[in-house]
Amino acid sequence: MNVGRFHHFAAIDWSGAAGERHKGIAVALCSKGKTAPELVKPGHRWSRPEVLDWLRDDMPADTLVGLDLGISLPFTDCGAFFPGWDKSPASAHALWAMIDQICVHDPHLGAASFVDHPQASRYFRRHGGREGEHFRAGQATNGQGRFRETEMEQRKQGCKPYSNFNLVGAAQVGKSSLTGMRLLHHLHGHIPVWPMDPKPESGSLIVEIYTTIAAMAAGRTASRSKMRNVEELNAALTALGSEQWEARTRIDDHQADALVTAAWLRNVAHTPELWQPQTLTPTLAAQEGWTFGIK
């Protein structure tokens, strides 16, 4: 794949919260060069289906899209997403389809039906002290739940990932990931997802991002990755070689995450080694996927 072929770079801070519209969703976009990223529909409170429509119908051509969510669940540690369940899927694509099928009646691309499914719930930690008997399976340590191989590599680079099987706490990512997998299922056949799908020579492409990686590249630390005002945002953009964001509005951490990560994607999209992580095999790619930016 010609990694320098992308003309636009988008970053989406995602939300798995209940309800239709979410303050936690932000979409940022930039083009080649050094111009500052811009928010798509500034001031708009997005729904998940609206993001789906934008990606499928309105996004500029040849865009590298970063989604801030886990695009799969741990598989390698136990040899299955859901060890002991005879309906456990064999690939990430099949996992997305399974989640979407079980949640077909959940509005707004929600995933509550999967979380509460009699079998699936046995693998998650849910609110109210409800921990499934398989939550601590495999390589789960210190009660944190299971991790994908890419998340283990994230730890080595100084990040602090959470298990996608953990649905409790302000920093949990499980709900975002499950709703995001429904999004990816609906985009199947429209926009390929790296590294599950073959790398296209033209058109747009989706990758998983972890906004902390972008913040660290901009001079922040993992524990201080969140930016909540324009001054912090512009310092990060300057560190990434981008022009500053001049909108005279207040900004929240979700919007800042998206803006900084879009600028970071523009910087690193042409880096060949990021498309060829040393430990990423074809089997691992098909089952667990990978986080772009983790070597």
Topology of this structure?
Blueprint: E1 8-13, E2 26-31, E3 38-39, H1 48-58, E4 63-68, H2 92-102, H3 112-115, E5 125-126, E6 130-131, H4 149-156, H5 174-187, E7 205-208, H6 211-217, H7 230-239, H8 253-268, H9 282-287
Parallel strand pairs: 1-4, 4-7
Antiparallel strand pairs: 1-2, 2-3, 5-6
Helix pairs in contact: 1-5, 2-5, 6-8, 7-8
The quaternary organization reads as single chain
Range of helix content: 25-40%
Question: What structural class results from the helix and strand content?
Answer: alpha/beta
Give the N-to-C terminal Cα separation: 17 Å
Number of strands: 7
The rounded Rg comes to 18 Å
Q: Note the overall shape.
A: globular
Write down the overall mean pLDDT: 93
Strand order of the largest sheet: 3-2-1-4-7
Main sheet characteristics? 5 strands, mixed
Relative strand content: 5-15%
The unreliable regions are none
Number of helices: 9
User: Order of SSEs, N→C?
Assistant: EEEHEHHEEHHEHHHH
Protein name: DUF429 domain-containing protein
Organism: Altericroceibacterium indicum
Please provide a written account of the structure.
This is DUF429 domain-containing protein. It comes from Altericroceibacterium indicum. By secondary structure, the protein is an alpha/beta fold. The protein has a domain at 8-71 and 191-275. It is 29% helix and 9% strand. The protein contains 9 helices and 7 strands; from the N terminus they run E-E-E-H-E-H-H-E-E-H-H-E-H-H-H-H. The protein has a 5-stranded mixed sheet. The chain has a two-stranded antiparallel ribbon with strand order 5-6. A hairpin with a 3-residue loop joins strand 5 (125-126) and strand 6 (130-131). Helix 7 packs parallel to helix 8 (253-268). The protein starts with 7 loop residues before the first strand and ends in an 8-residue tail after the last helix. The model has no long low-confidence stretch (mean pLDDT 93).
